[in-house]
């Protein structure tokens, strides 16, 4: 096996096994710091050993075993300053499985990271680190903060979990309704980081993160089958993931929705997403934010050609979404549908009203650039594209914006 093959195997193992290894260690040792440090050391050992020894037949088992040994070493070092009781229990006892409606270690880890005692941004950051395996630098870029500040935030979060003795388990049935909305919000942000990765050195689309977010959302929905937002978020993820293979060109450039090869979309995922949307409509309950977003995506994925898109229905759904979530980002997306119905001049006026709130958001400038281009205002469009390129972090998106700008001549 070549050195490149080994590096690829290590990268794949990190994508596939990080969350499993960390979750297994967190369950056994009850300490996120130990779990993270031991998992990191296990992967570092793989980087040293696998090029010489070869990739093991079962990388996940090798990493879990190695990480457990590293964790035991850490506990032993700590035990020298305390008693031997904890070390003996961890070395020789088989800890009982935590009780939960679904036996999945990564789901338990999610609920630990998403505990309501933590601020929402901290929950997302901790989940991206402990479950998604992103580095502090990658998470810092997603939050537009310095890496050192993000490192301190993660350290404080783990310390709070330890000090507050937050349990590593899926909450009981009576606690679930109060906890599930926070978990869904975190899973949506994890999915978005995979759908359009923010790091300049990361793959533009991280399928490992989108796949894990979908898997965990399925488990949350199984926990709460009557929760409309759990079903809505799953539908939204499926309808978005269905377009993944058509979103980036072989040269690494983003392909906009109106330019995608719709024949390359995953019809099975689309069918499942549409079925979930129809089920929620049939339930007759007032839809939440994720259900409306899923319905918008259902309209887009129902059109065999971009010219068949029912923009009046898309706009009506955005009007409903604005009432649920009156954020400037939702208003920006609504303006895009207005452009299709009422023209770019009307939409531009709406977008310009968002300037103060979205000055640092690349999509705001990209939308302005496109509307200005359609209005024949080339120099202004070029300036807007330049701003969008400066602010964008995704390599595929930067390539697409650059091409669109250069087409202006």
UniProtKB/TrEMBL annotation:
Gene3D superfamilies: 1.10.1740.10, Tetratricopeptide repeat domain (1.25.40.10), Winged helix-like DNA-binding domain superfamily/Winged helix DNA-binding domain (1.10.10.10). It holds the Pfam family Sigma70_r4_2. InterPro entries: DUF6596, RNA_pol_sigma70_r2, RNA_pol_sigma70_r4_t2, RNA_pol_sigma_r2, RNA_pol_sigma_r3/r4-like, TPR-like_helical_dom_sf, WH-like_DNA-bd_sf. This is Sigma factor-like helix-turn-helix DNA-binding protein. Belongs to the sigma-70 factor family. ECF subfamily. Keywords: Sigma factor, Transcription, Transcription regulation. Residues 179-279 form the DUF6596 domain. Residues 20-80 form the RNA polymerase sigma-70 region domain. The lineage of its organism: Bacteria, Bacillati, Actinomycetota, Actinomycetes, Streptosporangiales. It comes from the Bacteria. It comes from Actinocorallia aurantiaca. Residues 110-161 form the RNA polymerase sigma factor 70 region 4 type domain. The keyword Transcription applies.
